[in-house]
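B., you asked whether I could sanity-check this one before it goes into the benchmark set. Here's the sequence:
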Amino acid sequence: MSVPGPTPADPQPESTPYPPAQQPYGGQAPYDGAGYPGQAPYGGPAPQAPYPGQAPYAGQAPQAPYPGQAPYAGQAPYAAAAPIGYASRKNLLVASLLCFFLGAFGVHRFYVGKVGTGILQLVTVGGLGIWTLIDFIMLVCQAFKDSDGYPLRWDTVH
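And here's what the prediction gave me:
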């Protein structure tokens, strides 16, 4: 036999009021919302990037320009990106075969001009094989780039 629950006609227990505000611990002053010294108050204006043609705000480092926008006064121009369609003079098939057979010694990285990481692979025996495996996968997926950032090409062997 089930016991029926309270019905709307039954008197409801009195709701308990919220506890009083927490008292500060010891001699600690209550939080006044001011934050750290020098910090903008909550809800204050957030710093934003200048609009095109506008000089940076005082104390703000220059931001990178939007595409097609000239750099800010006093900011060095950025290096031009490689044009689309350009490829390395190094062959992807040669680099893939070097990675497969001699990858533990970093020979494929020496081939594409990445001498520093080639030496690291030589010393660590290809990152215990893990680094070599990652490089081989990147070569097969054609995501491996030469030391100048150009993708390797398939068509000719130099």
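One thing to flag: Residues 41 and 130 are 49 Å apart (CA to CA). Otherwise nothing jumped out at me.
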